[in-house]
Write a structure and sequence with these properties.
With 302 residues, the protein is an alpha/beta fold. The chain has nine helices and 16 strands. The protein has a single domain (5-294), classed as Aldolase class I (TIM Barrel), CATH 3.20.20.70. The protein has helices at 77-82, 84-88, 104-113, 142-155, 171-180, 219-230, 246-254, 265-268, 272-287, and strands spanning 5-7, 10-12, 16-18, 40-42, 59-62, 65-68, 94-99, 121-125, 160-163, 185-188, 192-194, 197-198, 203-204, 211-214, 237-240, 259-262. A hairpin with a 4-residue loop joins strand 12 (197-198) and strand 13. It is globular. The relative contact order is 0.17.
């Protein structure tokens, strides 16, 4: 049996990674289980300067997920490098630093700063509004996906994973654009645009009016988009969206993901990612299989 996976030359002891924005910098969760049990950790989104995020309310529950409008609250890259980066380097787990910006220059600066980090990889959050393009997110148009990916690749010495937004006309086109920009891999999906309404007040529940939907409800969308991208590019894919069990992981890998991120489930079950690792290990051992054989093994009908 084998649980190890390799993404852009980086070896993960298993394909389970915690998703950005759902695991902080791992400190709280390390009270529940050793972080070394995981394949990897993707940090909370980092920006050049500290951000307080959006005013509350910024989380709204749905029947099978949540809508968030947190707004990338984080201590800034310099604080991360001085504090969390050093601690995470001792955890015997692959660390992926998630970075974001408000303009192309921000991403370039972050790409340079993150070279100082001990993180093994970088994940680009390109769902942020581009202040120099009227607020349109970098990840909407293929040309901007390619531009920001290439700009970071030109200055960053670490493997770069471009995180794709599902709020686009054709995610396969954006996957191809990330590949053309030099991405070492892609991750998907980020959250779906959504709203929650208080019918009594006739107002949005979120202060920011709308946010990003995640959780079990987005899994069918995520599986389809992973499959679309697997058939569009040759670079490795990290899948995410509604993962709550080892069977969800199997499904994502069958659709083409080489590794899988666990996100919203961390909120409802702090032991969630750890339990998925253990269940997946038992399954792979019982089947005496190499987990990599699952990748892209979907048998389509017709």
């Amino acid at each position: 049996m084998n649980l190890k996976v390799n993404i852009a030359g980086v070896e993960f002891k298993n394909p389970i990674i915690t998703a950005s924005g759902t695991f902080g910098f791992g400190k709280e969760y390390s009270q529940f289980y050793p972080l070394s049990a995981l394949g990897g950790i993707c940090t909370k989104g980092l920006t050049l300067n500290p951000k307080l995020g959006n005013p509350p309310p910024r989380i709204a529950e749905t029947r099978s997920g949540i809508i968030n409008s947190v707004g990338l609250q984080n201590p800034g890259i310099d604080h991360y490098l001085a504090e969390d980066d050093v601690r995470l380097a001792k955890e015997d787990v692959v660390v992926i630093a998630n970075v974001a910006g408000a303009c192309l220059e921000d991403y370039i600066a972050m790409g340079e700063k993150i070279n100082e980090s001990k993180a093994q990889m970088v994940e680009l959050n390109i769902s942020c509004p581009n202040v120099k393009a009227g607020g349109m997110a970098f990840g909407i148009l293929p040309e901007s996906v390619e531009r920001v990916t290439r700009a970071v690749k030109d200055v960053c010495k670490k493997p770069v994973i471009t995180k794709l937004s599902p709020n686009v006309s054709c995610i396969a086109d954006n996957a191809r654009a990330a590949e053309a920009g030099g991405a070492d891999g892609i991750s998907l999906i980020n959250t779906l645009s959504a709203m929650a309404i208080n019918y009594k007040t006739r107002r949005p529940i979120l202060y920011n009016n709308h946010g990003g939907l995640s959780g079990a409800c987005v899994k069918p969308v995520a599986l389809k988009m992973v499959w679309d991208c697997f058939n569009a590019v040759k670079i490795p894919i990290i899948g995410m969206g509604g993962v709550q069990s080892y069977t969800d992981v199997l499904e994502f890998m069958i659709c083409g993901a080489r590794a899988v991120q666990v996100g919203t489930y961390n909120f409802t079950e702090p032991m969630g990612a750890y339990n998925i690792v253990k269940d997946l290990e038992e399954y792979v051992k019982a089947q005496d299989m190499d987990v990599n054989d699952l990748v892209g093994s979907l048998i389509v009908n017709g």
